[in-house]
């Protein structure tokens, strides 16, 4: 039996008939073509599938699509500006060389969006803990933390809480 789910994905209303066992990862990648959402561990440990649900970073591989009923979902594809320009967070990742193979990058960026959304200032150790649910096998974490420190500080200067 399929369930009808209504949700907003990257600002667009979506209605889908889904199997109650279907993960949000499967829905976003396979049905909606949002390939920034990566299929990694499928048990909520690597962070490659991280998206925002109502502004909160979640592992979409262990989040059922049914649970997204009435919620707002954001993926990296939803961060682009009106003319396709990159978001400040994406630019910081590029400028700080925080990208290698790119597999973990979308999930890390979505976690960074959640962190920046708090408007709070975080030190490097706090940021390291906040990204501990992400596995990066290429870069190590120094450049990722550099990018996150930079964008957190820039945001704090504007909206500091």
Describe this structure in words.
The protein is an alpha+beta fold and 161 residues long. It folds into two domains: 1-74, Beta-grasp domain (Ubiquitin-like (UB roll)); 86-158, DNA polymerase, domain 1 (Orthogonal Bundle), CATH 1.10.150. The chain has helices spanning 24-31, 88-95, 105-117, 124-130, 142-159, and strands spanning 3-9, 12-18, 50-53, 56-59, 72-74. A five-stranded mixed sheet has the order 2-1-5-3-4, with helices on one face. Strand 3 (50-53) and strand 4 (56-59) form a beta hairpin.
Mind sketching the topology for me?
Blueprint: E1 3-9, E2 12-18, H1 24-31, E3 50-53, E4 56-59, E5 72-74, H2 88-95, H3 105-117, H4 124-130, H5 142-159
Parallel strand pairs: 1-5
Antiparallel strand pairs: 1-2, 3-4, 3-5
Helix pairs in contact: 2-5, 3-5
Give me some keywords for this one:
161 residues; 2 domains; Beta-grasp_dom_sf; 5 helices; alpha+beta; 5 strands; (2Fe-2S)-binding domain-containing protein; xanthine dehydrogenase activity; oxidoreductase; DNA polymerase, domain 1; globular; Ubiquitin-like (UB roll)
Short description:
The chain has 161 residues and is α+β, with helices and mostly antiparallel strands.
């Amino acid at each position: 039996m399929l369930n009808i789910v209504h949700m907003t994905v990257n600002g667009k209303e979506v209605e889908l008939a889904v199997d109650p066992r279907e993960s949000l990862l499967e829905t976003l990648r396979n049905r909606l073509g949002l390939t920034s959402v990566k299929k990694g561990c499928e048990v909520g440990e690597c962070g490659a599938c991280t998206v925002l649900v109502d502004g909160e970073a979640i592992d979409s591989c262990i989040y059922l699509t049914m649970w997204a009923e009435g919620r707002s979902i954001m993926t990296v594809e939803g961060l682009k500006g009106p003319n396709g320009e990159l978001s400040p967070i994406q630019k910081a990742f590029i400028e700080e060389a925080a990208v290698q193979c790119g597999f973990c990058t979308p999930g890390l960026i979505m976690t960074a969006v959640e962190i920046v959304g708090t408007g709070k200032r975080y030190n490097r150790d706090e940021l390291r803990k906040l990204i501990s649910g992400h596995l990066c096998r290429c870069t190590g974490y120094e450049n990722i933390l550099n990018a996150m420190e930079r964008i957190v500080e820039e945001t704090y200067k504007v909206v500091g809480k």
